[in-house]
């Protein structure tokens, strides 16, 4: 759509790249409920259906990023189901591993690789470079970025990309929103080391998950956008010392422009629609609010 009207008469700002950022899908073994309560496959299907409808309505997605805890226990069939459900939604799907994933199976099932250690993934698109880190520790729930892995990142970022870069990892490099997540957080030293590695580079944004809650913050001078889980939502306003979650899913829609980006949280809870204005109705609203020309 290029005939959008603006109050200042300048051309409408249109994204050069649209990314659907999903996280913490927690697919389980077939027939098993996540946390014995939530059908994680059904929750993923709701998110995927929203994206498919968007494409059908003329809002296609260029890239899907899924930032870890793709499965709950590393079940190979869960990886297969995840790939099968998301394939076709976007030309490019990018996977990051989380603490609930099994690194060896993640590598085998989604990357077609056999390395035992962290793998630095680099996807170079004309509009953007996307670099994926592995913040997991085998057998642990909290996160760490190994010095050698960060050295790989530093070497990759040494040469700027024409469209700038985005870094993806599972453990959000921000203060955690709940008591349990405080224990399962990215180690503070890794957070500081990542901030130092990104300082002065072309990195425009960090995408992360793990918190089961959409949020944003800053890592040094670099913005961080955290996607919520497609399955559940952490309640940061639970009583002190308590961990409370809700059966509520979401993902983030990240739009990149030539000179910036926006991040929108897209709930997938089936909320009731209030209105749907067609172009003529939207034009009538605009016509009822003329711009006040001054001077």
UniProtKB/TrEMBL annotation:
Q: Does the keyword Metal-binding apply?
A: yes
Q: Which Pfam families match?
A: Metallophos
The record ties this protein, via InterPro entries, to: Calcineurin-like_PHP, CNP_phosphodiesterase-III, Metallo-depent_PP-like
Superkingdom as given in the UniProt entry: Bacteria
Which GO terms of the molecular function aspect are on file?
A: hydrolase activity; metal ion binding
Keyword list (alphabetical) reads:
Hydrolase, Iron, Metal-binding
The Calcineurin-like phosphoesterase domain covers which part of the protein? 18-212
Q: Does the keyword Iron apply?
A: yes
- State the PANTHER family in the record: CYCLIC NUCLEOTIDE PHOSPHODIESTERASE CBUA0032-RELATED, PHOSPHOHYDROLASE
Of which family is this protein a member?
Belongs to the cyclic nucleotide phosphodiesterase class-III family.
User: What protein does this entry describe?
Assistant: Phosphodiesterase
Annotated source species: Nakamurella alba
């Amino acid at each position: 759509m290029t005939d959008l009207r603006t109050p200042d008469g300048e051309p409408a700002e249109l994204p050069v790249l649209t990314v659907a950022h999903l996280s913490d899908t927690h697919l389980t073994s077939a027939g098993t409920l996540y946390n014995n309560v939530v059908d994680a496959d059904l929750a993923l299907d709701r998110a995927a259906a929203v994206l498919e409808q968007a494409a059908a309505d003329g809002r296609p997605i260029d890239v899907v990023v899924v930032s870890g805890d793709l499965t709950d226990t590393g079940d190979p069939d869960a990886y297969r189901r995840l790939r099968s459900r998301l394939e076709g939604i976007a030309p490019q799907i990018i996977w990051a591993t989380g603490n609930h994933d099994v690194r060896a199976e993640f590598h085998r099932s989604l990357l077609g690789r056999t390395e035992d250690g962290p793998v630095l993934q680099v996807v170079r698109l004309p509009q953007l470079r996307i670099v994926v880190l592995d913040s997991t520790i085998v057998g642990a729930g909290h996160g760490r970025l190994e010095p050698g892995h960060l050295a790989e990142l530093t070497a990759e970022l040494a040469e700027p990309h024409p469209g700038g870069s985005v870094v993806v990892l599972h453990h959000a490099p921000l203060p955690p929103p709940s008591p349990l997540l405080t224990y399962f957080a990215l180690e503070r030293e890794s957070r500081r080391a990542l901030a130092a590695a990104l300082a002065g580079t072309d990195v425009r944004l960090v995408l992360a998950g793990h918190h089961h809650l959409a949020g944003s913050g800053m890592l040094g001078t670099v913005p961080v956008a955290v996607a919520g889980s497609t399955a559940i939502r952490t309640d940061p306003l639970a009583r002190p010392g308590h961990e409370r979650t809700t059966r509520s899913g979401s993902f983030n829609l990240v739009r990149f422009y030539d000179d910036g980006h926006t991040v929108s949280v897209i709930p997938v809870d089936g909320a009731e629609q209030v209105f749907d204005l067609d172009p003529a109705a939207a034009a009538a609203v605009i016509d009822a609010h003329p711009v006040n020309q001054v001077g």
